[in-house]
Amino acid sequence: MAKNARAEQLREYGRSVLEGVRSDQVLRMARQVNAVSYTSAREYAGRSLFELLQNGYDAHPRDRRDGRVHVLLDEAEGQWGTLYVANGGTPFTWRNVERICELAQSSKEVGEGIGNKGVGFRSILLISDAPEIYSADPDSPLDPEMDGYCFRFAQKADVEEFLAGEENAHEVAATYPPLQAPLPLDDVPATCRQLAAQGYVTIVRLPLLSEAARAEVRLRMRELAGAKVPVMLFLDRLAGLTLERRAAGGEAGELDDAHEAIELHELTRSEERLAVTQDGAGHGFPVSCATVDLGPSGTFLVVRGTVEKERLNSTLVEAVGSGLLDDTWQEWKRSAVVEVALPLPAPRRPRRGQIYTFLPMGEDQAAPFPGHMNAPFFTKFDRTGLPFDNPLNVLLLDVVAETCLAAAAVLRTMPEPSMRQLAVDLVSWESEKGSAGRLRAAALRVHESELADVPLVPVLAADGAPPEAGWAAPRGAVLWPDLDLAVLTAHARMRPGSWWRIPRSAATG
After folding, report:
1. Gap between the Cα atoms of 103 and 177, Å rounded
2. Ramachandran region of residue 413, left (φ > 0), alpha (ψ -120 to 50) or beta?
3. Mean pLDDT in each 10-residue stretch from start to end of the chain (509 residues)?
């Protein structure tokens, strides 16, 4: 389809949406959508950049690992600056256009990517009231020209012009909901062309509302760049995230040819799968392991487990039947995957881990072990927290525990001491929120035995013994009471000059 044809398609669709305001019934609904749009935006306060990153991530095919997202704040453009968020992957399709204009709709399958509510994009209303979208031709995505769906959204002035001459034009325009009616854009801004030349296929352009909006974007970009928990850890479709701030004037930074100060952060991600032996480990609960290199943010061991489709479906039926999930969750077509991540080397372990839904959740959402965990949880509206008693979340947390036990069984057999050390971290769960019961149940599913009979505890073994000999079940492990004593092995006893001590209580008993 030619660019002119796409522009006409956008124009006709926008007109048909605006035409609805001539109906009193539609107008009443529009006022409600207007209120809900700004209410939902406020619910996402502080998360707009995360939501834009999420949309950029989801635009990349699930089987690719070379995706890129570029976040650019140009403070010299416009009164308060302009934010650009560009992504590679798949350009906007007509279905994407329709869904972004409809509240609480999404073109993504449930479980396909990070978002599926179709609400998060409205979070941008707190920082910009005039968003624009520029996208490449979906039929020729490699063409650097922005010849696809390029549009903005009708604003109050557009509604007044559409209703010119009608008595209530001003009143209707004042309450017309944002992000509803797309209007085509003919000219592509220079910065969008520059980003397109770098291979990005969709660019969201946000002229910022105010000084407060600019300060908010600055803050969130700094948080992404220096996050306490790595933002790229579970974004496996991405290889790079660029965070760039161009500031007019003499702020500290490297000057480019346009004499603008530049603040630039490049976050990278590369993944290498580990070949692991699972014979006898996990009793049919397979896990995959990979090392993920995040550059300056460190290297992590990432372990993945899969929720059986039948088990997932039965849980979704239960949750939908009890009204805790809506019907669309039963459209989940793929298996669910859970992930746990531990830093390498082991001494870099965090004091507390973080729960992710692909992106980090709120700071108070701590993982129950000294690592991070990720799953497609059902979250609260703004994705900063989750209801732990929702059946879907209960299932996913159960599978996280099972994944930890199965992975620990694999790591206990590895020759590298640092990897065996991680096996302890995976099963070192805090006692809060029913962790002990969850691990006991996981042991029955993974090992077909009681947790107390699973070899989880590292113990001293004879020199030259295989790695798995250095582990004992909690029921049979003994903590030596006198820390000054050494363990005497038969091999060591035969050495010249060897000696041993016997505790007084043992000698006199």
Report:
1. 10
2. alpha
3. 89 89 71 67 76 92 94 95 96 92 54 51 87 93 86 91 82 81 94 95 96 94 88 96 82 47 90 78 78 94 94 93 90 90 77 87 89 93 85 96 95 89 91 84 94 91 82 84 58 50 40
